[in-house]
# Entry
Amino acid sequence: MKEKLVLIGNGMAGMRTIEELLKLAPDKYDITVFGAEPHGNYNRIMLSPVLAGDKTIDEIITHDVQWYQDHNIDLHTDTTVTAIDRVKREVIADDGSAVSYDRLILATGSNPFMLPLPGSELEGVISFRDINDVNTMIETAKTHNNAVVIGGGLLGLEAANGLMQQGMGVTVVHRSDTLMNQQLDHVAAGLMRVELEAKGLKFLMNHATQALMGSDRVEKVQFDDGTDIAADLVVMAIGVRPNTALAKKAGVLCDRGILVNDTLQTYTPNIYAVGECVQHREQTFGLVAPLFEQAKVCANHLANIGIAVYMTTATATQLKVTGIDLFSAGDFRGDGQSQSIIYKDPQRFIYKKLVIKNNTIIGIVLYGDTHDGQWYFSMLNEQQDISALRSTLVFGQQYCEHLEKVAV
Amino acid sequence: MAEVQITKTTCPYCGVGCGVLVNKTAEGVVSVQGDHDHPANYGRLCSKGAALAETIDLDGRLLQPSIDSVPVSWDEALDKVSSRLSHIVDQYGPDAVAFYVSGQLLTEDYYVANKLMKGFIGGANIDTNSRLCMSSAVAGYKRAFGSDAVPCNYEDLEQADLIVLVGSNLAWCHPVLFQRISKAKEQRLELTVVVIDPRKTASCDIADLHLAIEPGCDAMLFNGLLHYLHQQGGFDADFVANHTDGMTAALAAAQSASDLAVLAAYCGVDLQDLTQFFASYATTEKVVTLYSQGVNQSSSGTDKSNSIINCHLATGRIGKLGMGPFSITGQPNAMGGREVGGLSNQLAAHMELDNEQHHDLVSRFWQTDNLALTAGAKAVDMFQDVASGKIKAIWIMATNPVVSMPDANKVKKALEQCELVIVSDCEANTDTTACADILLPALAWGEKSGTVTNSERRISRQREFLARPGQAKADWWIMSEVAKRMGFESAFDYQNSADIFREHAALSGFENKGQRDFDISAFSEITDNDYQQFNPVQWPVNQQAMGGTKRLFTDKQFFTKNGRAQLIAIVPRKPVNKVSKQYPLLLNTGRVRDQWHTMTRTARSSKLNSHTAEPIVEIHQVDAAALGIEQGMLAIVASDRGEVLVRVQINESQQQGNVFIPIHWNQQFASNGRVDVLIDAHVDPISGQPEFKHTPVSVTPYRAVWHGFILSRRPLKLSDHAYWVTVKGQQFWRYELAGDRVIDDIESWTKLQLGDDGDWLAFEDQALGRYRAVKLLGDRLESVLFIAADHDLPSRTWLSQLFANDSITDEQRAGLLAGRPGAGLPDLGTLICACFGVGENTIIDVINNDKSSTVEKIGQCLKAGTNCGSCIPELKTLLANNT
# Structure
């Protein structure tokens, strides 16, 4: 008789864990998957191209319903798990079903953080998290003109770009003077702002939102300096928080996220957690690379191989925002002991900064030319001594290989 | 087809005197090639000659007379010059005025200068920069032969079985002769070359034996040779007995060099090598000893040259095919200057000031009663007399003594204090024109017309093929006009240079009767037309030798009173200055391959500038290590006279304890590169030639706060940096820089240097003090600036090449701040072949691809070395290092 495995959260981290597990132990478990959204699994990262009209939803589905059937997985879409009975080893869903498990994976993801502003309940105030949000934005764009995106981070800029592609006039409101300050330094952010402004986005930097105004639908966004701007749609994109509600309710130990050890096991031994909902060694997650690594480790343990250990490594953000290539990794701001090597060609919107400490790369920001991102990143991870390459390092691998050849 | 005007002329650089064919299209585009008909070079040219067409633009030319920096008409200028000279002569006598002239003058100019000073002003204070170059050789010839007579012919170099190069880096200083010898050596395996030089120069490339003697040992060495030849029975007893005097005394003096082991130790060479050289000399009949500044520029230069000549007289190896003591001159017309008497201790046409008969003869010929009676001041004394105020007025023509004289700072100061400094030049800005009260614009090469004489006594024409620019005039015209205004109308009523040449030729034959070697009386009545058609010919050219004279002394008759050659008893003297604790290294000076004198002409050519872009000090690895000096860093080289700031080149060609600095750089091209400020003004007692090659110095690392370079499409007005060098490139200017002050705001500072317009790229590694910026105007490269805390900066070669393009590609743009292309795009490396612009890396690639490479194969592949051949020694070095 097979053991029973239940996955709560039909998203990228959870489903990657199932895939990895099927590779290792295809017949070990009867698998049940609960998903709150009414779809198969899709690539959430690709929501931006969908919003921008570059892709369709079908194109971003990674596991359609047929896939689950082919793999004998019992899929419950559009179904929210409301409770976990740790004693009975059973999950209860809002469709009334109760499914027992021998092992359980929590992959509940994260929730967008919504500012507790007056008016945030108004129609047209949304986040940018799932297909539903994307659909709302596309529909709104057909009938309304003024969009305001609160938050100049990665997600906010992608939303802004998408809305602009859908024909809306878009203003991005940002609290500080540095866009994407999780990934970019001031110079790179400045270049990005100039480039995005050239594409038609408007920016209100150093602006704090005080209230959203409107009768039914939002009409205005008001700031703490008393000024306001018209808004038919407000997208809040100021960050996400691990979704721990279900775990907490079930008594699985949580802090900011669901606490897991190096095998992705929670404090309840037969319950595992992966993805944006977890907190591992004080860290929570928002990028896809560590999630996939977690999936691998978790699957290894679920398959009873039990030798893999998850270690947080520096993560690199390599992405294209509205056609702009970016690469960011490590401590790109540096500290008193670090040194910077900088290359800039502002007319071409190229900027590269390598932060060096003890002759190793500890931080990387690449803007406009990310060709060598992975190369730098591997040196960062391997703590490679770069002294010999230092004079040409920022120019990229093809300059350093040449150097190595000459040196030989 | 466009009409091409072809002019036959002569190269204005070294004493080889190569024939040049100038092609000028109807549009005025000029190109040059070697003249295949000219016996000096038979079509060959060196890198400098081949680049002549690049040097004829009018940038920086002096084109207008001026008085106290105010432009004036010729009339005003000539009136001023003549009235002030006349006034000073009236007030203080003829010795209060001086002419300091040049081996760059044409013979006709030289003749007029000499005639005006000695014949009409009545003093003999006319001396020439040839004093710095070959006056010891002149004195040596005169002592031995009774006349300044170069016995040899270039053909002798090809016909010799042993060529001894003494103190001559022929490969760089007389490249075409070097090529002729190299070629002969390929064809005649019996031709042996011995190089005697403290430095392992490029000329050692063809040496079968290199005796790297310690500086200053030449005379002892040749005394030793004389003694050895005597011991070995190597004398031509008949010749010695019948045609020479002084052998006994000469041999007695040579006794101190009799012990070969002692001699070898004294000279710092292997006994075996020394013996090999002596044996080879003793057993080889056809020997040419070819010598140059390494012999001449010495406080005992005259003795050194006589020690060489002694050996040729002892063996009778003179006046015959393939033999002779052969002094090679540095300048295109040093010989012409000697012929007209342009040195202060000569009269005219190889006649002597202190000879009553000559005095009478010249007085009658010139129809003057004011002919100078006694010798004037030689160059060093002349400027000392300027400094002391004894000379009140000096007229400097076609030379740059503030750079080229020893103790050059003192010379500069003397000129600054002098009552009247007149400078005739074709350049507006030289270190010397900066000291002038009156500036007179002279014609340059290609504009002026006359004759020059090369090292083998061959007279050739320089011809004009360019329009005379601005108000520039021929030097002879300027002087004649001044002479007329001073009251000597009839004596200087020349219509053209042919007039002067006829007079010069007539004087040489005037009452000569075979007593004087210099006789070109065959041209006394040469027509203007024949003068135009003049073909190169070796003097004497007279009734007895209408076709010229290949070789002198074939009849074993010399120009001494008794017709016998004189052996001179040489007691070798060490150089005056000795190293000390404070100045422990010995400084040698000389030329680099692709520059000429003070660079006024060669620095116009980007090709020529790329061989050695900066003033350098060459130093041995061991000395460098002991002083904490690294390759490429800056160093202060100091003597008790002054100091220079130059780039270090660690170089095995230097002996330990010796350093070398080129003579060329000056205030126009470098912040502090005038090597002659270091040199003491010690001179040879007979020739008056200064000791340029033996100065005790210290070398100290210069710790600049920052190093850098700028390449700019336009010339820049730079801030006053501690170190700067200006180098003209192909469509750009290069500035090598170093500073002694921290740059606070490097971005603003950069824009101050380069101008703040345009688009900018920047690179910064602040921790290492590295900053680089590029300015673009659109896609066109405008300027680049590289700064670093140390001297380790990327090669300038690739960046330099980008200025040839009107726009740069994206791929190039990505490499701008790296200073080189990425993988896949070749970096040519340091330029080796100036003619075809072939770089070191390209050549190494070819060698690596074919390990059996030869100079010929490289030539077939890349053309490198196939034009002027000046880079062949470097190609060989590359081959040796890479196979």
Summary: Chain B has a mean pLDDT of 94. The CA atoms of residues 407 and 547 of chain B lie 45 Å apart. The first helix of chain B runs from residue 47 to 50. Chain B touches chain A at residues 759-768, 770, 776, 794, 813-815, 817-818, 820, 822-824 (CB under 8 Å).
